[in-house]
Design goal:
Helix content is 11%, strand content 38%. The protein is built from seven helices and 38 strands. It is globular and about 75 Å long. It starts with 5 loop residues before the first helix and ends with a strand.
Length: 515
């Protein structure tokens, strides 16, 4: 029987897999008995959504999915804004370019940002830009303007905005960004802007970034302005050319994961002697009051490649310093976990990538910022790299670090069975629903009657919940209920132990709680 260790749990808990994300979308579709196919054109998507009501003004079906044509262009007549229902917009199945959503410019007016969600929002397979049809830039591509909403963006490309991809004005928001590209955020004449996420100091429930590629971001990937993040998960992402300030700010996070990432030129501007230190990853301690109410802070930091080209740092004046890697709090977690050696610094040659931002940095410190933007000359880029680099096998389970979308055949899911010594016939069928709130049912198959118990672990291997053993008969779909109302949002590993006579059978799975 294999012994379960913290290390094995950490290796198993590497990601919220793409398969699971597909299950989320499939779950939405399962309830969405109605689809609306929307033709390309000017305002066609706005009209399809806004007019989809009954005579009383109620939604025809709040579980509608709007399907856009591949290779189609959709000019948006003002922001897509919805309230009180789950809006789902996806690309049609099949081959072809992502449907393009582009702000239109009305006669004598200005274009609006693409989205202002006031309810749950799901987007899959789209290209969304903040650059309007005449070349002007809108700001805040997704301005989240309601509390306690869930935003899911998968397999999409968010490109060009004057300020930020996601501006959060609500509290308790859950943001899931997976398998996507976010590029060309901000302009170099205003380098304090240009972000992927700006939480504006609002408390966020979940920030979940996995298997994404970020490039040419003039300021920060995550800007935390002091609001507490309950669960921050940043795994298997590639970032290239991030400009001014700290690259990724978790701030005072309750539970955080920062693993399997590549960040090249992550805080390219460095920081002057007379300004705040810039970091690659910022983790701040929680207050005593926050710890008393929410529990001890936990952050896992390992298996990352963080590198800044010497050509970039050589462009600094003598009074400017290269960014530090980690804040004091982050360093303390690394030391406690003994993971320092897993974080490497390797110069990678990508198949194709933007040019180094040396001119941008030089002009900024010379007082001529804005004369040159980050390089986009050879878009689309390809951030794959050769298997001869150390990074190719530097991940938590020997996989490549960075976004695996550039490596056909590699996925962020862990398919290996860590408990392969189990007798034939015992298996976990999954937990349903998943994601869930606050209860779910774990389905198992038992070859014989057994006493079955469940232990649930967080992302750093701490046991957070146990369900005492109960006697279950043999069967293919036996069920155990989990009540997780006292846990915080995030991904958990559950381990099921079945004892039958002299046989002990163990297996595990993953579940995601979203409050």
């Amino acid at each position: 029987m294999r012994i379960v260790t913290k290390t094995s749990l950490l290796r198993f808990a590497c990601s919220f897999s793409f398969a699971l994300m597909l299950a989320v979308f499939a779950g939405n579709s399962a309830f969405a008995q109605r689809t609306v196919n929307v033709s390309p054109g000017v305002g066609t998507l706005n009209t399809a959504i806004d007019s989809d009501t009954t005579e009383t003004g109620a939604r025809v079906d709040s579980n509608t999915v709007y399907v856009l044509e591949r290779d189609g262009t959709y000019l948006l007549e003002g922001s897509i804004e919805h309230r009180g229902y789950h809006l789902s917009i996806v690309a049609e199945e099949g081959e072809g370019a992502r449907p393009k959503l582009i702000p239109a410019v009305p006669d004598g007016g200005e274009s609006g940002r693409p989205f202002r969600p006031r309810g749950d929002l799901t987007i899959k397979g789209l290209y969304v830009t903040g650059q309007d049809e005449l070349g002007g830039l809108t700001t805040r591509m997704f301005r989240i303007s309601e509390n306690d909403v869930t935003i899911r963006i998968d397999d999409s490309h968010l490109d060009k905005d004057g300020q930020t991809a996601f501006r959060n004005d609500g509290t308790g928001v859950r943001l899931f960004l997976t398998n996507s590209i976010v590029s060309n955020m901000g302009i170099t004449s205003s380098p304090d802007n240009g972000r992927v996420l700006d939480d504006r100091g609002n408390q966020m429930d979940t920030v979940y970034f996995e298997n994404n590629t970020f490039y040419n971001i003039t300021a920060q990937i995550i800007r935390d302005a002091g609001g507490l993040i309950n669960y921050a998960y940043y795994n298997q992402n590639t970032a290239y050319n991030v400009g001014k300030g700290t690259a990724v700010e978790f701030g005072p996070v309750v539970e955080g994961v920062f693993e399997n990432n590549i960040i090249i030129n992550g805080a390219a501007y460095g920081y002057p002697d007379n300004e705040e230190v810039a970091y690659i990853l910022d983790v701040d301690p929680m207050t005593e009051e926050e710890t008393d109410s929410l529990g001890a802070q936990s952050v896992s930091i390992s298996n990352n490649n963080i590198f800044t080209a010497s050509e970039v740092t050589d462009a600094y004046p003598d009074t400017v310093n290269a960014a530090m890697l980690f804040t004091e709090t982050a360093e303390a977690f690394i030391e406690a976990q003994g993971s320092a050696s897993t974080n490497i610094s390797e110069d990678i040659t990508f198949e194709s990538a933007p040019g180094l931002p040396t001119t941008v940095v030089t002009e900024f410190y010379a007082g001529s910022a804005g004369n040159t933007e980050f390089d986009t000359a050879n878009e689309p880029f390809d951030f794959s790299y050769a298997d001869t680099f150390t990074s190719y096998s530097a991940g938590t389970r020997g996989q490549a670090v960075g976004s695996l979308n550039w490596f056909p055949g590699m996925t962020v899911s862990v398919e290996e069975d860590l408990f392969s010594d189990n007798p034939d016939g015992f298996k976990i069928n999954g937990n349903y629903p998943n994601p869930f709130n606050p209860s779910t049912n774990i389905s198992i198959s038992l070859p014989q009657a057994a006493d079955v118990s469940v232990d649930i672990f967080n992302m750093i291997g701490q046991k957070v919940l146990s369900i005492p053993a109960q006697r279950l008969a043999a069967g293919t779909n036996q069920s155990l209920r989990v009540e997780a109302g006292n846990l915080t949002s995030g991904m958990y590993i559950y381990r099921v132990t079945a004892v039958s006579g002299a046989n002990t059978m163990v297996n595990s799975g993953r579940m995601t709680l979203i409050k």
